[in-house]
Amino acid sequence: MNSNGGRKPLGVGVIGLGMAVTPHARSLRDLSDRVSVKGVFARSRDKREAVAAEFGFPAVESVDAIIDDPEIGAVLLLTPPNVRTELVGRLAAAGKHILMEKPVERTTEAGEAIVAACHKAGVSLGIVFQHRFRPNSLKLKALLAEGTLGEIACVRLAVPWWRPQVGYYDQPGRGSLERDGGGLLISQAIHSLDLMLSLTGPVSEVQAVAGTSLIHQMETEDFVAGGMRFASGALGSFTGTTAAYPGASEQLGLDCVNGNVVLEAGELTVNWRDGRTETFTEDSGFGGGSDPMAFPHDWHMALIADFLDAIEAGRQPTSSGQEGLKVHRLIDAFLASSRERRAVTVAGTA
């Protein structure tokens, strides 16, 4: 008997085989006792044949081949966000469960429509926020849930990353509203902001400044700094950029009543008020430099496993579409605050 309890592996299709495909493909291969990849598709024949050859997955000639295949019960949708809405509608109507790369869509309104379509069709919708599934992210969540750290008083989040102009922002559509829906916040810092919200609960109000630095030529922001008021009463700060050469790891600090915790590049340090210090290490990269894929695929595998568990249990995944909308609304508030030069209430928390 395998770890799937002897059940037939779930048929899976993959649409979109760009930069993000490698950790997903490795995860699917490692989860072969639970999933069977029935088809992978990209508009580029060369790309789909290369992925098929590298991972031993069958390539198909069209999206329709995946949508119409009755043996495919779930689809990994790894396309840019500007082609999501139509594809999600067709997949949901065909009864396919969907695990989709972040963001949910380019705008919160479009993301809400996607979430609603999946709910109406009765299919599970998961969003790829793999940082929630890093071992020490889970360790920190458990520590907070135990209550021994006490209430969170202050939150400090920093994302000092680097993305070059040549080879990254010079790519057509990169950092544009039309293709990506934005810049630093929706494309890079969204992961750290989502992880923060999963640990702290919602932000109720922000006051921020956002803009494009002299380092890059792009339509949207590569730098954001702001203050946050949390619904819990905690106060916080956020700074993020993709102009911090050569790039450093993101850091999340929580100052709690009974101690301080710092999560940086997967390493968790707990400084208890009684003088004890505990450190929990994790062997991983961080993707904050010029190679955005410099990290292991274990986090993706844990996320996909949770997605499969959700399908079997008839529930939404831990990293669901509704969860994804929370970080979208926070991003909207940051940008609105900078644009309007005032404090802004985060939608849904008033």
TrEMBL record:
<feature type="domain" description="Gfo/Idh/MocA-like oxidoreductase N-terminal">
    <location>
        <begin position="11"/>
        <end position="126"/>
    </location>
</feature>
<dbReference type="InterPro" id="IPR036291">
    <property type="entry name" value="NAD(P)-bd_dom_sf"/>
</dbReference>
<feature type="domain" description="GFO/IDH/MocA-like oxidoreductase">
    <location>
        <begin position="138"/>
        <end position="254"/>
    </location>
</feature>
<dbReference type="Pfam" id="PF01408">
    <property type="entry name" value="GFO_IDH_MocA"/>
</dbReference>
<dbReference type="InterPro" id="IPR055170">
    <property type="entry name" value="GFO_IDH_MocA-like_dom"/>
</dbReference>
<dbReference type="InterPro" id="IPR052515">
    <property type="entry name" value="Gfo/Idh/MocA_Oxidoreductase"/>
</dbReference>
<dbReference type="InterPro" id="IPR000683">
    <property type="entry name" value="Gfo/Idh/MocA-like_OxRdtase_N"/>
</dbReference>
<dbReference type="Pfam" id="PF22725">
    <property type="entry name" value="GFO_IDH_MocA_C3"/>
</dbReference>
<dbReference type="GO" id="GO:0000166">
    <property type="term" value="F:nucleotide binding"/>
</dbReference>
<protein>
    <submittedName>
        <fullName>Predicted dehydrogenase</fullName>
    </submittedName>
</protein>
